[in-house]
Design goal:
The longest helix has about 35 residues, at about 90-125. The protein contains 14 helices and no strands. It has about 325 residues and is mainly α.
Length: about 325
């Protein structure tokens, strides 16, 4: 297990370094200059010399390799630099905008898992063939719905027509119902598809027939024996989908006007604020790596054969 953990942590470090490097290069290759966007304004009355001093204070006048070395060293020490547009440390902007995004992604992933399990169990336990076929077709419909379109449709139906949930000025849990639902439905589709297929595969194995021969009910066998063995493939897909979950959260925040990382990213893109974009990209990569590392470590617990294999290899 120790060797397995070391290998996964090493892979995570390589992924984070690659994400940082690629993001840094892309942000410096793209045309535009955030300093000129903000300070080269006739109303400010700044001359070329003053703008050059500002560029020097942000360190953007140095060679690219020096900027890269300074940036990666600063990130390792927890310093994300300064936002050119806001004039404050990027860490403060991240800290202020991160909680709404964490709530949205956390509740969205939980609801997506619940929807996927409901679809999987309904597709296996329903006594009617037509209902099982209908439930199995639901994920294909969910995955084809764009996140922004779903959000607008939910606002139109539940806010404007039925007037059940507010959109403007909504606070607390009422303000999260529609955004969380918008985020969860597309994410639940691939989870449900993998879970249904895994349940169908596990249900044909000999130990399931033995459990049924002992008199266990179909629902008991499904929950006690089949579901646990069908969970690892779905768990792997859930880790991969975390990146899509983050992307969907950014779109959802824009649609519903939430002040989270999505709004911060949108403002940074509009103003070409490279420091903020670099921090958001790296933090997203950290979240993706941590979630997938957790998934990798859960696999040996769900499937003891993997734990025995790792002991043999070590």
């Amino acid at each position: 297990m120790t060797r397995y953990l070391i290998e996964r942590i090493g892979q995570a470090v390589i992924v984070l370094w690659a994400a940082f490097t690629v993001t840094f290069i892309l942000l410096h290759v793209l045309p535009g200059d955030a300093i000129l966007i903000k300070f080269q304004n006739p109303d400010l009355g700044l001359g070329p010399q003053q703008i050059a001093e500002i560029r020097a204070s942000y360190g953007v006048d140095r060679p690219l390799w020096l900027q890269y070395g300074h940036a990666i060293g600063s990130f390792l020490s927890g310093d994300f630099g300064y936002s050119i547009q806001a004039g404050v440390p990027v860490s403060e902007s991240i800290r202020a905008n991160l909680p709404p995004t964490l709530w949205l992604t956390g509740l969205g992933s939980l609801l997506a898992a619940v929807i996927a399990m409901i679809i999987a169990f309904a597709a296996s336990l329903s006594p009617f063939a037509w209902l099982r076929a209908l439930v199995r077709s639901a994920p294909a419909l969910f995955v084809s719905i764009p996140t922004f379109w779903l959000g607008i449709a939910l606002i139109q139906i539940f806010s404007f027509r039925l007037r059940l949930l507010p959109v403007i000025g909504a606070e607390g849990w009422r303000g999260l119902i529609l955004p969380v639902t918008t985020l969860a439905i597309p994410i639940s589709a691939p989870l449900a598809q993998i879970l249904v297929r895994a349940i169908d595969d596990v249900a044909t194995r000999p130990f399931v027939a033995v459990a049924r021969a002992k008199g266990a009910t179909h629902a008991w066998v499904l929950w006690r024996h089949v579901f646990r063995n069908a969970l690892p493939p779905a768990l792997t897909v859930a880790g991969v989908l975390f990146g899509e979950l983050l992307g969907g959260a950014l779109i959802t925040e824009t649609v519903f006007g939430l002040n989270g990382i999505g709004r911060l990213t949108q403002d940074a893109v509009n103003n070409q604020d490279a420091a903020v974009l670099q921090a958001v990209a790296v933090l997203s990569a950290v979240g993706f790596v941590v979630v997938n590392l957790g998934v990798d470590l859960l696999h040996p617990l769900l499937d003891p054969r993997l734990a025995r294999k790792e002991r043999v290899l070590s």
